Structures are given as structure tokens and as C-alpha cells.
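#dry-run=false #mode=assembly
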Amino acid sequence: MKTGGSLSIWFFIGLSLLVNGVLIFGTGLYELVYPPQDRVVLYALHAGIWWGGLLAILGAIYCYRFSPARERARNSV
Amino acid sequence: MKTALILADASGLVHLSTIDLVIIVFYFALVLAIGLYLKERANTGEDFFMAGREMTAWVAGLAFLSANLGSLELMGWAGNAYKYGILAAHWYWIGAIPAMLFLALVMMPFYHICKTHSVPGYLKLRFGEGSRALSSISFAFMTVLMSGINMYAMAVVMKVVLGWNIHVSILVSSITVAIYVALGGLRSAIFNEVLQFFLIWAGALLIPILGLVEAGGWSGLKAQILKNLTEQRVANPGAYTHAWSTLGNFTDNPMGINWVGIVFGLGAVIAMGYWTTDFLVVQRVLSAKDLRSAKLAPIIGAAFKMMVPFIVILPGLLGLALLRDPHTGSLLRLVPADLAWSDAGRAQGLHGFDEVLPLMLARYCGPGLLGLGITALIAGFMSGMAGNVSAFATVWTYDIYGALINKNASDEAKVRMGRWSTLVGVAISIGTAYLVVRSQSIMDYVQALFSFFIAPLFGTVILGMLWKRATPAGGFWGLFAGTISSIVMWAWVKVNPDAVKYVALSSQAQDQAQNMFRALWCWLICVVVTVVVSLVTKPKPDAELTGLVYGLTEIPQEEQVSLLHRPTFWAIVVGSVFVILQIIFW
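#status=ok
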């Protein structure tokens, strides 16, 4: 699915989800260890951990699947 | 976590932490990097204005939807859901899905075969220069003015929600959009729109998930809304969670509208006009690499559009059920923005309808998640603005500059003009934003002005595509009469508010209901005038209409591909899900 340059749009999306996911996951873990004083509603569900983790996994899959190396190999076939 | 207040004062609704700011800065860096990366691939007119016509169905379809998902769309319709209940979902369902499927299956072949660069370009081929000039000039200027108004409204929301300085919000976001669109043209705008689409979902999807957990599911949410509205003695509290059953009478629902206005005004005219002729969205589909992709793109867009109420309408309904004053614990009642954002309103701690989405965001999202949610709102604004600016640059360059000012402009000159008109379009938008700062009534006028052109334009384009007898004179005078009649009806109600009972068939009609009926009447006037004038004027010979009109155009048969790759199959699937949703939320 080549849609521009040698980098696919899906690679950029993967990168964005991966970076945001890691940051949110890390922040969620930090809050688990050091609970904040002002807590959001449903804090006990620790949404940051599972939502951040989900985004990071999805982003990693996209980054791998549409990595520049794999795109080059696909385009050269 | 240390709270960072860069760019902000203490008056914001929510406060961002350092990690939130890192997420927002990363987003800005990424969209600029994409613009720089794609600069080398925007050297010809086809590249800059049409993204090389090589987009896949998925990319074109998601960009098609994303260009419409502005942040005001997100916050405004969440606010409308709080104000009108689930009736607001009609703007995502009957107000979008049939029109998007109609575009895919009926209209896309004509746009694709005639290889037009724009909707005004199609009007030129079908009806001549007069119709193109009328539609391109009105579209170009209204687009940048609307972009400026959205920019201002976004900056105000950022000030209210985050305490950000209005000037910083306007300049940072608009200059970023100007850079990446001017560098990479439509391809850059589309790439960023697809990225923004993902960020919008990633940032906003947690609200309905956590909200439904807190409310006890859909049945718990409905029960809580009924209880809260009954306590507050709101009329027809049950109407807030039923999409169709209260549309028998104008007085049975909070919008003051009946099914005729929703089905014919919204579904048959406004939605058809917007989704099939507004170049802001149609341009994305024109960039598709082949006819099958061009037909699939709006269907993919429709599939996701149907789901948008989950992240927009549901948070508004959750706000009705769950929002409480953090100090007193009593139910929080949101009010119109002009009251909430006045000095008196702020002093009393009032919140506007449009704040319901940020309020729900702040309710559930801690550091990191909050940054992603705010990024989703910013991404929404920027995708909408990039859509406006890239559509403006194309229409200006091809249909005004290339058609009226410099008819012999080379391809290179057009690309140069495209880059400059992108920057000028952003500058005009910024100017409009500051004009609105000085006089907010301008906002109402320009928004109304924009709506004057959409409904009649649909009448002209659809008759042009489906009726070969429509003549150039019929097309021009129909478009002109439809536009003028819309302006007259709007002015009539402004001067004499009692006239609403004639225009919208009910004195109870709210703004949205008035828009629906005004669109319906002006579309009918456009169609009648086009037909009458066409019947007394000379039509174009059939040979000149090949590729432009149904019956004189050989529509390519769908390729021999498997069922799962056929646009018609997926249109039936999406249409069926649409019908099921209407029954579930009847």
C-alpha cells in the first residue's frame, strides 16, 4: 500500500501511536506507584496503563508492518 | 507530576502536566515532518492539487471523513447532543450515510471520468463559465472565511478549557497548517488527515467507554437521563434518547422539528449538497487512484462516519446523565455559550454546551491521556483547516486564477500559485478570526452565508448529471435563484421572527430546524427554475455531454473482482447497518 515516498502513511501512524502509547503507559505506571492526590473518576481502572499499552502494541505492529526496510523490499519485488 | 502552565493562566477548565505538553509538541513535530518529507513529491499540478491521483481507497476514504471532523464538529455536536439529545445523531446517520453512498455509487463515476480538478470545474464542463464563476468565487471566499471563524472558535475553546492565550492558539495552529499544506500540497494534507483521524479516535474513544462503565451501560444511561431531566422539569425528557419516535410532531422533541425536516431537509438536501458537492470533502475522493478506489473511498468514510456518534453524541448524553458540580454535588446544567462565556457567566462558574466534551475528558483522563485528548481536539481543528485551505488553493488556482485571470498559466505557474494561495488563504483566515474577535455577530452572518450556496449547488449538479436536457442557462439561473431565495428567507426571519412559522412550518422551530427547511425550499426553487429555463432554452448537443451526463456516458463495469472487493457489496453492508442502527435507537 504505497501512498507516497518510500515511507508509508501507515508507518507515520504507527510511530505516533507507539510514542503516545509508551508515554501514556509509562505515566499510568508512575501513577500506580505514586498515586496522585487529585484523582480522576474511575481512577481505580488505571485506564492509562491498558489504553497506553494497547496504543503502544498497535503502534509497534504498524511500525513493523510498514517499516521503511520492509517497504523497500516490497517495492523492489 | 509537576503541573506545567506554559501558555496558560489559572482560569482554564483543565491543567496540563509536562507529559501532556510533550504529547502535544510531538504531534506538532510529526505533522511538520510529514510536510517536509512530502515536499519533494509536490512538483506538478496533479501532484500538488490532486495528490497525483494515486491514493488508495482507505487513505482517500479516511481523509474524506477526517476533513469533515473538525474540532468544532467534535465539540459542537457533543454540545448539541447535550442540548437536543440523540436527535443530534441524525447529522451522522441520515444526514450523512445515504448521501455518502449516493456519491460513491451514482456521482463518483462522472467526477472520475471527466477528470475534473474541482466541483466548479465540473460545472464549467457541464454548464459553462457562468456557473463555474458563480460557484467558484462563492466557494473560495466562503471557505477561507469559515476557516477563520472555526479558528477563532477553536481559540476561544482553548482559552476556556486550557486557559491558553487566544493569539498563541490562532498563530501556532494556523502557521503549522500553512507550512505543511504549502510544502506538500494535497498529499501532505491527506497524510496528516489520516494521522489526525487515528489520533481523534485514540484520544476520544476512552470517554464513552469509561462513561458507559460509570453509567451502568446504555440502559443505565437512559434511566439516569430520564431521572435527571424529570428532576429539572425539562419538557419531553424521554425524547432525549429516541431518534425517531418523537418526530411525529414539532412539539414532541427538544429541536422543534418533525420527520419531514429531518428526512427531506437534512437527509435529501443538506446532506446530499454537502457530501456530494462541497469540494472540501469531494477533493479527497478525487485523489483516488482508480474508479473502484474512488467509489470505495466514500463507502469506507460512511462506515466510520456511522460510528462517530460513539465518540461525539454519546459523551454529550453522558454529560446529561453524569456531570455534577464538584463542590455542591448537585446536577450540573450547561447553558448557551454566550451566557457561559460572558463575564457574569464565568463569575458564576457556568459552562457552555460546547464544553461538555472537555468536561468529560477532564472527568476521566489523567496525565498523558488528557494530553492525547487535547491533541485529538487540536488534530480535529487542523484537519478541518487543512481541508479548507487545500480546497481553497485548488479552486482559486484552477477556477479563478486559471479561468479568469491567467488562462495560459503553465503547470509550474499553477503550482507556484497553489503554494502562495495556501499562504494567502491562511492569512485571510487569520484576518477573519480577528475580525470576529472585534464583532462576533460576523460569525452568524458568515456561517449563514456559507449555507446559502450548498443546497442549490446540489440541485444544479444533480440535474446536470442526471438530466441531459438541462441547459447552461438553466444551470446558471437555477443556481442563482436558489441562492438568492435562501438569502431572502434567512433575512425575512431575521427581520420578522414570526416568519419562522412559514419558512420552517412551525413557530417552535429552533435554528437547526430552520436551516433544514430553508435548504429544502431553496433546493426546490433551484430545481424548478433550472427545469423551466432549460425547457425554453437551447440544450447542448449530445456529443458535448459525453462523460458528463447519465445516459450519454459509458460507465465502466465493475472489474471482475471478488465480492469482497466490490463497492456495491460494501454499500449494501453499510446501508444495512445504517438501517439497523435506526431501528435500535428508534
